[in-house]
Amino acid sequence: FNSIQTFKVDFENDIELEDMFDKTSKYYDGLIILEDIKDLVLNKNKEKMMFINASDSFGNIDLILFPNVYNKYFNIIVPGVYVVKGKVEKRFSKLQIIVSDINKKEV
Q1: Cα–Cα distance between 23 and 89 in angstroms, integer?
Q2: 50: nearest Cα among 38, 35, 60
Q3: Bridge partners of 61?
Q4: How do residues 76-99 score in pLDDT, each as one tens digit?
Q5: What does the DSSP assignment read for 46-80?
Q6: What is the rounded distance in angstroms from the CA atom of residue 107 to the CA atom of residue 77?
């Protein structure tokens, strides 16, 4: 029995980010709009990481790119629509996605 599921979320879907936190899965795989880079910081090891404000048709969420992911995607262009994969976490009563993969949505 595998309790982990991956949700495919897009703008025609009715799964809200907030609802996902109550499901057995804590993983996001879908379209999201990157609005702006919230912050670019150095972690305690002096490695760069990025925080991005993002949204889908249901609300806003923060994306976090830790150094290993940031090094692969540091040149992303915002604003834009992207396919994002990552782990959904709740911190200080707010949802965030720890990004593992992010790619520009081809039109």
Answers
A1: 12
A2: 38
A3: 54
A4: 999 999 999 999 988 888 889 999
A5: S-EEEEEEEEETTEEEEEEE-HHHHHHHTT--SSE
A6: 15
